[in-house]
Amino acid sequence: MVQHRLRCIAFYKTRKLYEAVLARAREILEETSVELADTICVYRGGYVAEDRRRIEAGLFGGTLRGMAATNTLELGIDVGGIDATLHLGFPGSMASLWQHAGCSGRRSKPSIAIYVGLDDALDQYFMSFPHKLFGKPVEHFHVDSRNRKVLGQHLACAAFEKPLCPKHDARHFGPGMDGAMVTLRDQGHLMNTNSSDQSDVWKYVGPDKNPARAVSIRAIEHDRYKVVDKQGYRVLEEIEESKAFFQVHEGVVYMHQGVIYLVE
To answer: What is the per-residue pLDDT across 232-257, written as a single tens digit (0 to 9) for each?
Structure first.
């Protein structure tokens, strides 16, 4: 696509896959079209904001022709001017597939979306029965409001707007409300005005002037680990705690923009 001067975004299911594809694509371009080797890159939500803005500016300004991306690219970014999308593997839902494909061909321009099936059973099923893919409806969207991490952040924002009373508000927030509020109290975000935890009014007393601004749209967790390049001490990425211990543990090979690092 890049060799044909098409501006494209490639979507992948796993981090290792799109780093590997970027490295291989760059090798091909260095052999065949060396002037285009630096016009492709990876875009991830874990990148620091400065790097994300720089990549976005390159894509919109035309200095970047190809980008390997995750769902993060969908969040608040106008990707007008994209000619093609490449999908390596089914993303997990029809909604994601069509949303990714919709990144190209905006403003009434022609476009193409290419879905490459991997070796897993679902991809091969769609390769054998493509009508199942094109005839499948888009799924309904669901959020598990009882997820403790979602509920805790939700309750803090709700209490900031109006004090909460478990006796009356449990019907809105579910059976996990009491436990989540006790956790928020222990963390210094909520205060119970009376002695009984079951029928009192809880107020927001946390450190944030507006807790909604502290809720990330890219990650569910607050605790993150920074990946730092020791040569120059540049922050390459920030990774959620739940992923850090199997993605960047000591001794693992870590890839960033096609460059290989060893984690110490």
So the answer is: 888 998 888 888 898 899 999 988 88
Closest CA to 78 of 54, 97, 59: 59
Provide the edge-to-edge strand list for the sheet that holds 66-69: 40-43, 66-69, 8-12, 84-88, 112-116
Contact 92, 12 (CB under 8 A): no
pTM, two decimal places: 0.71
Pair 183, 189: CB distance under 8 Å: no
Q: Encoding tokens for residue 191?
A: 């205060």
pLDDT value, residue 77? 60
Which tokens belong to 136? Answer: 């499948």
The Cα–Cα gap between 43 and 34 comes to: 21
Q: Which of 208, 247, 205 is nearest to 224 (CA)?
A: 247
Interval 30-51: pLDDT, tens: 999 999 999 999 887 778 878 8
